[in-house]
Amino acid sequence: MYTRKNQRDLSTAEKRRFVGAVLELKRSGQYDDFVRLHDRYYVTDGSEGPRVAHMAPTFFPWHRRFLLEFERALQAVAPGVSVPYWDWTVDSTPAASLWSDDFMGGNGRPGDRQVMTGPFAYNRGNWDIRVGVTNRRFLTRNFGRPADPVALPTAADVASALEQPVYDAPPWDSTVALGFRNAFEGWSVAGGPKWRNHNLVHRWVGGLMNSGTSPNDPVFWLHHSFVDLLWDRWQQAHPHAGFLPVMKLSSQDPQSDRVYSLNEPMPPWDVTPSALMSHQGIYAYA
Fold this sequence. Notes:
The chain is mainly α. The protein has helices at residues 12-28, 30-40, 59-77, 155-162, 180-185, 197-205, 219-237; strands at 2-4, 283-285. The protein is globular and about 55 Å long.
């Protein structure tokens, strides 16, 4: 049993151990395997085949297992290390400690948006982008997207999603207007904003966070650690509103064999959503 802490509460030594473990995974090649895996399972509504990691009910359990796999890899390098979380409703500016030179580094520079500060800057020699949507080898960010500004989600935005009384609803994709999953994952619905909550954070950071290869930016893990925490809060607030769909969808359903129900094993781990409904006994949040 271990604890995931708010990144703002990490000591200098804890930051150093986390960053050091991430850099070691990068050196070994394991880090890029995680980037490839996330990209492989970034399957959109209109794409062929099963949809398990995004735009689907399994968004939360799939990413919980993804973070656990990453955390175990970190702990094999540095025992006791865990993935901290970034509460972007509080640490919501480029001046937040998250973006310090000894942790995540800062924004990208004007022009090519290359990150020039921190341990993940290409010019430091430790962070070479090998799995990307372009051939650029450096980490990019574009905080707030000044050309078409966006702001990070607020506590009120999160509270609105947490009030949703059901987990998900048909048609189980990015167009769902009801339920916590899409309210929080954050795809647009009729009459609403283009991006919300989880998705809006990816857009605010910008650069490589705006693609299927978003784990190329190590802040991805801190973002999704907070996503996982908020799923836990929704579960606590709605103890009788479980994961949906419970049963395998009918062969007559347009989403048949595309969307995974509670007890259908999710690739690539062959683990069911039901096995990931709780993190008790594994980790806690401080």
